[in-house]
Amino acid sequence: MLHSYWPPLAWIGNVVFWIALILWISTSNLPSDSIFIGSCAAISVLSCFLLLNPWQSDPFEPIKLVVFLYGGSFGLGPLLLGPEGMYKIPYLGGAWERLLSEGSLLALFGLLVMLFGYYLYGLFPKSKPCPPWELTKGDRKVITIFGIILLVFGFFSYAILVDQAGGLSHFLLYTGGRAEIFQNAFGALYWTSFLLISGLSAIGCAQARSHPFIVVALAVAIGLLYFPFQGREAIIAPIMCGLMLVHYGYKRIGAKWIMIMAFSLTLMASFVGYFRTIDKADVYGRPEEVVESYTDQFSHNLKRTFALNLEQMDAFLIALRHVEISNKLLNGRSFIAWLEPVDRHLLGDIIDSEQAGRFMTILVNPEHRWTQTALSPSIVGELYLNFALAGLSLGLFLYGLFIRFLDTKLRTIQHDPLILMLYPYALWSTAKIVIDGTAHFFRIVVVLLPILLAYFYFSARFESQKKQFLPDPAALVWKRDR
Asked: 60 vs 166, 245, 271, 314, 404, CA distance in Å?
């Protein structure tokens, strides 16, 4: 049920955003392109309205997380960073203004196609849900033990990985491309370390109602454990999953706490980005100097975090430019790039794949060919790089359908509490595709596969238990006849 105060607050928030956006557009030094300004403003306004939906107060509604990332990537981000010459990329040459106009219009078209798929799915008839049921104390104990086993495997993989890569000091002192931080230890140990998130999901499903603070504390601990990896997504993902586990398994988290956590995660992401670039050898053992230097450049670090992690129009323009001047497409090769770990170690590198982010990086900076650096291509840029406009249209339509599918699963949690084990990371990883494209699908498989198998096992087990307590149909007929 919606809180009585939410609709007026949502309308006020939208109006304030509209006024602030108009003031920014009228006073900033944006490129003089009405199509660019109009398209990005429309993306921003539509995304804000869906985020502050007066009729839906759930902050973790799937479409809200997706449009938050999409609106920041292709709407608000370009409007904020455009005046700073963000898109005067040498690779784009003198065509950058025209491409910016075309890219913003295509991004608006993509958002509309995605929303069409999302709301079209909502028109399909839904099957009648089963009666609500809850996990018994014994069921929760079994699932908790399963989660602890996953945590143990994940932690040992993490510990061995760090040790083989050079120890914790190597991670904390490393400065350079993050892809090289693992040296020769990157591989199975890296991927199985993400079983920590699988274990969190299982334990949260079983214990969120009884021990919500323990679930949140475990999520934060796993996030901080990934800090030496110097990757924002690895740190934020378990924390977001912990919040959703408590939100749907125990009690809805209020808007105040959501804002506090959003601000905290933004600061954390900003600090991680700063930590990756400083010369750590000079400040090792003097952490107060690191913090002081960060706070002195606080606004710059926040803007840099926004530019590197949320805004994705630049990557989309690179994809547009490549297709325009080469008339060549990847034809789906990037969509199987996530199989590279399996292909390299088990199949002898026989799959012809191309990671979209690496491909774009080499286009812009050919000298990075000998590194593992990669841009975040965004789902929009990756779709266009593979199949041009047809791929953009069909891909975002299917993406919208899948987001709505997750929404329908969310609404069945009370009828199938085991869904809570799968839902948080499935939603987080699906939403992150907006920014990262499909490059991290292998991580999704690692996290979701063990708990997906557990879901099928426990569902079958609990179904057989429930049947033991159902009345005999023949006895019901006898009673009715009497």
From this structure: 39, 11, 25, 28, 13
H-assigned helices in 327-418 = 340-342, 356-364, 378-410
Q: Between vectors from CA 191 to CA 385 and to CA 407, what angle results, nearest 5°?
A: 65
Nearest to 427 by CA among 169, 201, 215: 201
CB 43 within 8 A of CB 109: no
What is the rounded distance in angstroms from the CA atom of residue 475 to the CA atom of residue 482? 11
pTM of the predicted model as reported, rounded to 2 decimal places: 0.87
Q: Which letter does DSSP use for residue 470 in this model?
A: S
Tokens matching residue 293: 């230097």
H helices, E strands: number in the chain: 22, 0
The tens digit of pLDDT for each residue in 305-364 reads 666 677 889 999 999 999 999 999 999 888 888 887 777 766 767 777 888 888 888 888
Residue 422 identity (one-letter amino acid): L
Amino acid making up residue 469: F
Q: Evaluate whether 107 touches 44 at the Cβ level (below 8 Å).
A: no
Helices (H), 122-136: none
User: Phi, psi at residue 320, to the nearest 5°?
Assistant: -60, -45
φ, ψ at 193 (rounded to 5°): -65, -25
Tell me how crowded residue 348 is: count the other CB atoms within 10 A of its CB: 8
Tell me if 5 sits within 8 A of 254, measured CB to CB: no
